[in-house]
Amino acid sequence: MLIDLNEVLKNDGKVMNVDAQLELAEFSGRLGRFPITDSKPVSLRIQNMGDRKLHISGSTSVTLKVPCDRCLEDVPVTLKLQFEKEADMNQSDEERRKALDEQTDIEGYNLDVDKLVCSEIFVNWPSKVLCREDCKGICSICGTNLNLGTCDCRPTDLNPQMAKIQEIFSKFKEV
After folding, report:
1. Among 27, 37, 142, 145, which residue has the fewest nearby CB atoms (within 10 Å)?
2. Which residues pair with 44 in a beta bridge?
3. What is the pLDDT of residues 115-154, one digit of tens each?
């Protein structure tokens, strides 16, 4: 959704409050594509700080379907996003991009809410997503989800440098 910033730019001190609906169906990034299953309206407050500088603050909540890092089952991940940023409208679009290395959500006099939320999702992306704390993952040999059952594969996850120690322990087991 695009929000026209012309009205707020006309008067110093002017404040615009907007509730914008997120139009994204999925979030795409370097890690893949993740469907958005639920989102709350983006509550924005845009204030003209004078000299064509804007203060943009807002919040929303977005739920994405993300695969578990261990077993690859889909997990609903809810991100509660709160953000504040400054935009200098005296600069060109290119100058704003170079200055912040991210400000692609304002083009001309329009604020792209979807791009703003995408950049906030990048910043707030969880470092690890698990379906549950004690997730057992998948078998590295046959791919069986170990949360749902077991397999007959022999675990070979040992460090090759520790192979000699494994031989010693296996000799003691035979006695």
Report:
1. 142
2. 18, 58
3. 999 989 999 999 999 999 999 999 888 889 999 998 888 7
CB atoms within 10 A of CB 77: 15
- Retrieve residue 170's tokens: 């296996």
Q: 174 — phi, psi (to 5°)?
A: -75, -25
Per the CB < 8 A criterion, the answer to whether 66 and 37 are in contact is: no
Q: What angle do CA 80, 62, 6 make, to 5 degrees?
A: 90
Q: Using CA atoms, how far apart are residues 163 and 60, in angstroms rounded to an integer? A: 52
Whether the CB-CB separation of 16 and 54 falls below 8 Å is answered with no
Sequence-separated (6 or more) residues with CB below 8 Å from residue 86: 49, 53, 54, 55, 56
Lowest mean pLDDT among 68-72, 74-78, 171-175: 171-175
